[in-house]
Amino acid sequence: TPGKQIHEMIDQIAEQLALSGRPLIIDEIDHFVEKKAVEIIRDIYESSGAAILLIGEETVPTKLKVWERFHSRMLDWVPVQPPGIGDAKTLRKFYCEDVDIADDLLGLIHEKSNSSVRRICVNLARVEEAAKSQGKKKIGLKEWGDRELFTGDAGPRRK
Q1: Can you give the pLDDT at residue 132?
Q2: Which residues, 6 or more positions from 19, have their beta carbon under 8 angstroms from its beta carbon?
Q3: How far is 73 from 120, CA to CA, in rounded Å?
Q4: I need a labelling partner for 114 at 20 to 30 A (CA). Which of 5, 61, 68, 155 fits?
């Protein structure tokens, strides 16, 4: 049952983390920073002792310096690396369970996705859906043809 007040919810979160031994992963930590709510995360950390992984924009380390008690608890700052073809192959395993996407098409997906994991995932899902709609269990560059992949570009303006 969720606590009625923030401190009760923080205690519940900390208890669950401590009991489970699992880490807490917070994506888009930037929102906590913008709302000046980082002390909530520090309270969870102090109460649970759990590892906390923060994911955010490149400016987060600088912005967190305002909260020295929080900033000083950082173990490491690791910049994200652009996804390589190996990452695309790993994502293919998760996003394409019903269709085998050939390496040649995966290479094009990786290239057109412009170093964006999200775009790689979108393109994998699109290719799988297209293959399934054609009754194919395997698809490569030859079968894909000259169809477009999602690049993030809005495309030309309609007249």
Answers
A1: 96
A2: none
A3: 34
A4: 61
- Alpha carbons within 13 angstroms on the beta-carbon side of residue 148 total 6
* pTM for the whole structure: 0.71
Give the pLDDT means over successive 10-residue stretches in the chain (159 positions).
Answer: 92 96 95 93 95 93 92 92 96 94 97 94 96 96 94 79
- Judge contact between 127 and 101, C-beta under 8 A: yes
Q: Which pLDDT belongs to residue 93?
A: 95
DSSP per-residue codes, the chain:
---SSHHHHHHHHHHHHHHH---EEEE-THHHHHTT-HHHHHHHHHHH---EEEE--TTHHHHHTTSHHHHTT-----PPPPP-HHHHHHHHHHH-SSSEE-HHHHHHHHHHTTT-HHHHHHHHHHHHHHHHHTT-SEE-HHHHTT-----S---PPP-
CB-based contact 127:139 (threshold 8 Å): yes
Contacts for 141 with CB less than 8 Å, ≥ 6 apart? 102, 104, 105, 108
